[in-house]
């Protein structure tokens, strides 16, 4: 059996980027969201191959059988995995967290304001990924950020990651923790590949392009107001750091 792994992430923290990077390694097969409500999102390299893991109807009838098929269908790779996002089926989280043979990668994003803004734009445009063949997103323009909505997402994500760490610890296991802000670094790539017991030598590349470029000042229509409202709070530094991103 190949090394099994799962990427545990909240929305808009670079999980598509990480999947694409890992899938570029010759020894790694990395699917995207196998349990997305809208479909079974296979590795980008396999999307022209059809329903090699079965269709959505079969998944809904026996979801854990889909998971077992995914582990078995390594196609000659030494490591096979997928990403599981916040909000996806709880019983799948329980299965992979309790399974000592499944290695866990926790991916988060340090800048919480950028995470919130990216998720808000994705929900408005319904564009969640950016590949050469993806649907093009019209420039959304600067967005108004309400502190109450921002705070709600920050609390949601904090609780999600706290719960993940507690559950993994309670299962007597460990996880490799990564941050979006360091995904482009070669040493980060080596850490992941060593964690998966594959050759750390090959250079990883990604098809996906970064979305919502620019400073937060250029992306937020009420930046000055937000700056005043966040003064003295835990998010003040996130706003300031976003000017250099």
State the main characteristics:
alpha/beta; single chain; five-stranded parallel beta sheet; 41% helix
Describe the structure.
The chain has 245 residues and is of the alpha/beta class. The chain contains 10 helices and 5 strands. A 5-stranded parallel β-sheet has the order 2-3-1-4-5, with helices on both faces. The longest helix is centred in the middle third of the chain and has 24 residues, at 147-170. The chain is globular. The protein starts with a strand and ends with a helix. The mean pLDDT is 91.
Give me a quick take on this structure:
The chain has helices at 15-23, 56-61, 63-72, 90-98, 112-125, 147-170, 186-195, 216-219, 223-230, 236-241; strands at residues 3-9, 28-33, 79-85, 102-108, 175-179. With 245 residues, it is an alpha/beta fold. The chain is globular, with a radius of gyration of 18 Å.
What would you call the structural class? Answer: alpha/beta
- Across the major sheet, the strand order is 2-3-1-4-5
Poorly predicted residue ranges: none
Radius of gyration: 18 Å
Fraction in helix = 40-55%
The chain-level mean pLDDT equals: 91
In this structure, how is the largest beta sheet organized?
5 strands, parallel
The 3D shape can be described as: globular
**In percent, how much strand structure appears in the residues?**
5-15%
């Amino acid at each position: 059996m190949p090394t099994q792994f799962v990427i545990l992430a909240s929305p808009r923290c670079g999980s598509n980027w990480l999947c694409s990077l890992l899938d570029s390694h010759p020894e790694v097969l990395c699917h995207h969201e196998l349990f997305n409500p809208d479909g079974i999102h296979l590795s980008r390299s396999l999307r022209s191959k059809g329903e090699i893991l079965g269709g959505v109807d079969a998944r809904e009838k026996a979801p854990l059988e889909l998971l077992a098929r995914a582990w078995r269908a390594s196609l000659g790779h030494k490591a096979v995995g997928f990403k599981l996002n916040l909000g996806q089926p709880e019983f799948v989280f329980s299965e992979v967290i309790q399974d000592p043979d499944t290695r866990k990668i926790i991916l988060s994003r340090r800048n919480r304001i950028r995470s919130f803004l990216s998720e808000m734009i994705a929900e408005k445009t319904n564009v969640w990924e950016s590949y050469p063949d993806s649907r093009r997103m019209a420039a959304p323009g600067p967005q108004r950020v309400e502190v109450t909505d921002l705070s709600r997402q920050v609390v949601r994500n904090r609780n999600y990651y706290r719960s993940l760490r507690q559950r993994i610890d309670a299962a007597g296991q460990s996880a490799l923790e990564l941050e979006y802000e360091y995904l482009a670094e070669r040493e980060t790539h080596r850490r992941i590949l060593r964690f998966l017991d594959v050759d750390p030598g090959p250079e990883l590349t990604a098809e996906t392009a970064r979305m919502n470029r620019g400073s937060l000042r250029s992306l937020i229509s009420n930046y000055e107001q937000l700056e005043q409202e966040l003064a003295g709070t835990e998010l003040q530094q996130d706003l300031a750091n976003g000017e250099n991103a």
